[in-house]
Amino acid sequence: MQIRAIAVTTNEVGDSPMAAVLLDQIPSHEQVVSFTGDGAYDTKDVHEACYLRGAIPVIPPRKGAKLRKGLAFAHRNEAVKACRQLGRAIWKRWSGYHRRSLVETKMNCFKRLGEKVMARTFERQVAELNIRASILNQFTALGTPLTVAAA
Questions:
Q1: C-alpha–C-alpha distance, residues 102 and 121, integer Å
Q2: Backbone phi, then psi, for 41, in 5-degree steps?
Q3: For residue range 51-88, what is the model confidence (pLDDT) as tens digits?
Q4: Which of 5, 28, 39, 147 could cross-link to 22 by cystine, CB 3.0-4.6 Å?
Q5: What is the CA radius of gyration of the chain?
């Protein structure tokens, strides 16, 4: 549950164009098993970036999604078929999509380190946000408590 990649952009840049940039930040010798994102990531570029990296995209298809041709869309097409036949709620449970809530929790922790970015220039804002990520990763590295049932 560490922050492994970070991309700081202006408000004009959407999330999905940054997916390939984020995947490229993880060293190529490290395996990326899956890439989880919300419906905004259901784009051709994101699925191709996941395919090239060998990651399974866990992205809910948009409503009314059509099947696409190509190996990069094999997992997407399975998701589209599963949502049509079983429903979106069952697909989310089956695919492990609910793990995304752990990422949202981590982002909440990230934001609690400071509601606003204090730096004024964009370069310093990037540095500040990278420092926040590093601090949060240090907290995560300290570990989480082990809870055991007492008789």
A1: 31
A2: -90, 0
A3: 888 888 888 888 888 888 888 888 888 888 888 888 88
A4: 5
A5: 18
**What is the spatial distance between Cα 39 and Cα 24, in angstroms, rounded to a whole number?**
21
| C-alpha span between 3 and 136 (Å, rounded) | 8
DSSP strands (E only) in 18-103:
34-36, 56-58
Rounded Cα distance, 79 and 62, in Å: 10
Q: How far is CA 135 from CA 26, 40, 110, 142, in A?
A: 19, 28, 9, 11
**Tens digits of per-residue pLDDT, 42-53?**
888 988 888 888
CA–CA dist 11, 84 (Å, integer): 34
- Look up residue 61 and give its DSSP letter: P
Residues in CB range of 117: below 8 A, 6 or more apart: 125, 128, 129
If phi over 0 gives left and psi between -120 and 50 gives alpha, with beta otherwise, what is residue 96? left
In whole angstroms, what is the distance from residue 104 CA to residue 106 CA?
5
